[in-house]
Structure formats: structure tokens, C-alpha cells
Amino acid sequence: MQLPQPFIENIHRLLGAEEGEQLLNALLAEQPISIRLNEDKVPNLSSAPIYNKVPWCATGCYLDHRPTFTFDPLFHAGAYYVQEASSMFVEQALKQYVHSPVLMLDLCAAPGGKSTLARSVLPQGSLLVANEVMRQRAQVLAENLTKWGHPDVIVTNNDPADFTQLADMFDVILTDVPCSGEGMFRKDEVAVSEWSTDNVEICWQRQRRILADIWPSLKEGGLLIYSTCTYNTQENEENVRWIADELGADILPLNIDAGWGITSNLLPDAAFPVYRFLPHKAQGEGLFLAVLRKRDAFPSKETRVSSLGNERFPVRERKAKGKPMQPTFSKEQLSEVSRWIKNEGYELLPMQGVLTAFSKQWTDELTALREARLRILYAGCPLAEAKGKDLLPQHALAVSNLLSSDAFPRVEVPYEQAIAYLRKEAIVLPPDAPRGYLLLTYKDAPIGFVKNIGNRANNLYPQEWRIRTGHLPEEIKLLM
To answer: Residues 117, 118, 124, 130: is their CA dihedral positive or negative?
Structure first.
């Protein structure tokens, strides 16, 4: 890898010649391999293949080899997520400052690493809105959150400016803003070829526009988690200072272990708390993170006690609900589908012809997003589509935490058949398998539905998610 000379010079100015060389040498070393386990699908973490734990993430672990992720059915089942270790540090910000249900926005969320992490560590009863401006990437985000299995999510496909109108809506906003990508150099060679000092200038200015656009939608007293995967101070410390001074925020500290190898503020004239991951000190890629609390602009406004460090939050006036959605399912169908899920507290709502489970607690917020004309790609947990008198169970239900264990007969399949299913090939089940809709499992993890008609089983795996290659590698390394 040939690093740009201006980047090398910048690193020397930032860290000094000796430590700068240590960082540059680390960029030429092998990248650590790390994953994060899904506690809802791997409940007994002590039996999971944790070779070395990621110290700042309870479910993160480093691997001593790279599994063949594409050909691992448990990967497609959402049992784990392949995530760079440094980015798992978001867990510390959420765990240390969020202790009861919140409405959170992950603004630049694709492909979904930080979103699935946030969804795992947010208090029960929280709602996560995960947004991505690029349509294709937003579809990948929706896929990854679907497989993760938590129903209390909404996926949107919007520009940050579209959220400006939603004043005082979110308790927490994560802005993993587009950046110059210096921290990804050893992971992505394209990032090296695209880097330039001009691009750094463009990035820090774009980041401020994004922050200014999203700031009105953060509640007074709410948390902003700001992160990048780059090293320079323009996109990091200088932007954090700009948020504090110009938008009005307090910069909050995190309790961290000195053994984690995290570097602090690199601005010579500033001492506010920020957290840097440098690959010659911490086992991971480059990451910068800061936590800020929006100051109360109007202290006299009616407030409520929030979980975010017991700070005060304004009580947002509820918008009147729009016209109720007209039911498109019969009472018998609603009764049947309600037996498929095990959790209480969800409404069954028809969304684009699909009966969907959505948390009763957050229906007003869903209405507000619709009234703001946001592009909602996915919300709650899609359960069933009506096909005449028949109910077609949705794949999201198969991999959801809401699925009742006795809703459908289960058929355990071996590895080869699981891969054939994930390729959306025809499946032949044992002669004694019951007819109708069945849930296929691999190592007891649900991978999706089939409809068994006797001589074959119709494969209901989503066409757009299928494994496209028709061959298996000569050597397949599985996680478990």
C-alpha cells in the first residue's frame, strides 16, 4: 500500500516523527478480524467461540482466522455481525448515558454495524430510527437490521436535511458522518486512492452542514454521539469544538480503561474529552468519537426527567394521529397472525399490504415520520401478506425475536441443505415432514420459511438476499 505523501506529513505533524512512524507502520500490518455476537440468538455466550474479547464491547470478539462468512448459515440467520472492533466503542457511550427507553436516530447508518449494536444495548422499550441517504445502501441496512431480529426499528432513506422539520424529536442521535476515511486505509485501498487534502477540506465542511441540519431534531438535553473513521483534527476535535461553541453543547466524558489503548485530545490548545483509536495502540482501525449533550435553550420550558444522566428534557407535544389505516385483513386472519408472535405491546398494522407488528408505545412517532413525508423502507416486523385466503409468512418473522417458538413446525437441516436454501434452490424435505408452512433451522437457528407441498418445498427466502455464487470454496471455515 502506497500512502499519499501529504497524508504521511500530516500524521508526522499530528503525532510527531517517532509515533507517526509507528502509526504508519501499523497501517501496513494485518487487519484484526472481529465480530459481535447477537445475544438474542446466541444466548449462552460462554459457549460461543470467543477467542479474545473486545474489551469495550460485551459481545465483541476477535477471531484467530477469517471464517467464510458468505457460506455460514449462522451469519445469514443474524447470529453475529462482522464489525470492526473500534466501532464497537459506541456501546460505551450508550451504556454510560442511556438507562431507560429513548427514541434514537442513527443518521448515517449503512451498512448497519453501529445500528445493530445500538439496538442490542439500548434499554428495552426504545425505538431506533436508522437512516441512510443512498437508496441501495439503505436496502442493505434494512436487510441487516431485519436479520438482527429486533422489532423496534424503523429504516428510512432520507437526506439529513429532511429531519430538520422534526423539532425536538430524538433523545439520542448518532452521527457517524461521511469522512475522508483515513482510519480505513488498511481495510479499503479505495480510501487511499480517493484521499487528498482537498477532500479533507470538503469533508469537514460537509460534516458541519449535516450537524446543523440535524441539530433541531435533537431534544434539549439530548445526546449527540459524533464519530468519524479518520485521524485529522479538522474533521474531529475542531468539529467537536464547533458543535459545542456554535450549536450549544456540553462535551461529556466517558469512563474508560487505560489498558484499552485509547488516545485523547490531540489539539494542543484544547482539553475537552474525546476518544481516538489509533491502530498502533488499540487493536482495531482508526476511529474518533465524542459525546455531547445539547444545552437547554429554554430552561423554563416544561421538562421531564430523562434517563440520560437525569438531565431535563422537554415534553414534546404529541401530534394528532392521522386517519387510521384501513384494515385489509379479516378478523380471522388477524387472530391467526397474532398467535405467531410471543411479545405483548405490539399493534398489528397493515403497511403496504403486509401485516406488521409495531410497538404500541411508538405509533405516534411513526405517524410523525409519515406526516413529515420521510421515505420509510421498513418499520417494526413484517409478519404476513394476504394471498387470497392464505397468509404468507414473511421472512422478517422467521428471523425475528417476536416469533413464537410453536407458531410453525420446525425442520432442522444439515449444512448443505441450508446453503441450498440460502441460494433459493428447491428443497426436498423428509417424507414425514408436515405439509404447509415450515420453519427451517440450522443448528437450531431459524433461517427462513418454506411451504412444503409434498414432493418438494417451495423456497420462500427473499430473492434479493440469496447467495448468488453457485460453487462452494474448496475450504470453508465456519464460526461455530
So the answer is: negative
